[in-house]
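Figure-free illustration: sequence to structure, shown twice.
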Amino acid sequence: MREAPVPPAPPASWLRSAWPRGAIRSIPTPSCWWTIRVNGQRHSIQPGASRNRGFTIIELVMTIVIMGILATMSWPVMDSSLRAYTELTETTDTLGKLRYAMERMAREVRETDHNGSNFVITTMTAGTLSFTKRDGTTVTLTSSGGNATLQYSNPSVTSTLTDQVNSLAFAYYQSDGSTAATGNTDISFVQISLTLEEDGNTYPQRTRIALRNTQ
């Protein structure tokens, strides 16, 4: 019986171009090769030489476990960063409210009217200041229910300057800046102390306004 012809081995030059340098150290025996025809030319290849290997279930499970461990380890850092950002945002908002309320009250107090003998101040207590402006409008500054309020008499309007109020206090001084004023006849300075509170933290601010006699 005649034996089947053995397909010829591929030329060494074709092997070098098909595989990277060093991938094949020797040409396999002819029995390990298959013969294929490409564009009318016959070529021999080794079965299974270029099989692609995928991920196994164990590898996928291990990857998921490792990612879970890394996420668990990094969460405290992420959580602290988020808390710090939230606290910074809240503090910035609170300071903005504090600055606006103080500037608004100071601007109103500077317009206190003087009738030639004294400033037109009707109420000057530690918690409330009421005075008349040069245009005849009566202004009342006080705090209630955690809010600092500004009230006009004409038209009758009450607006909230800020919330989060921990304390609002007024102090009155004579021209030397240290002696407490006894009334609207010897007052020269009004001191406003405002403290806001946010999550147990307090933010105080104090300003002193010089009353101007324009008569």
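We now fold a second protein in the same way, so the two outputs can be compared directly.
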Amino acid sequence: MTYPVSELPINVTLRGCTNESITVIANTSLALQFNRECPLYINASAYTLSSQSISYWDALNVWLGNVVSYYDGEPLILNGTVEVYATFLNGSRVPAPVLVNGSSTYILQSPGPSSLLLSINYLGVVNESLVRVFVVPSTYVEAEELLNSLGNPQFLNATIASAIMSGDWSLVNKIVTEYQEASSRPYDPLTQLSKYLLTQAILNGNLNGLNAASLILKYEMLMYTVLASIIIAVVVAYRVTRKSRKS
């Protein structure tokens, strides 16, 4: 003996995102869509039974995690794996991966400008954002520290800006490396001379001074050896001359 299928009506009351009361059949789906952030309070009842729940519609905001600074309003990120995440409006993390150009792991190695498509799909809510970034090496952080310590000289500032735009960090790398080398060596006249020339080159934009400082740092020991040899030769020649006069 078969029994007819009984369709159980469920009374549903919605408050918050919308305010309405509807009747649906048990075990059916209810499709709702809202284009704003809001809570939806749901009360479902049938005969003497009832149940309540709350759902939230929220915006998904995507963020770059390894931003070190900004240039002309656009983020600077360190080369390597791009770090991304998404948050709700209250700042809590969205438990879903953010894709970068369609990939869950995206690596940027080459410095310079780049465009990234950040996308996330969470419970049917989709956010896609196209972001223009500048990829910079770790030298950028060291160059900024040097820039601040020297009082923000125009030449170094312009050199860093040019490197950000072009992706060519060779000159910035040279300046930072040479300055760190001169600052880390123990005190001696040639090292101090090279640091002075290097500082003046950075302040005045004099590349000849930069090259001169580099040569001193590179051949410092050779210069001391040559200088010592000259002094020894002069002393020996002086003694030989005195002996010749006495004889």
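Summary for the second example: The chain has six helices and 13 strands.
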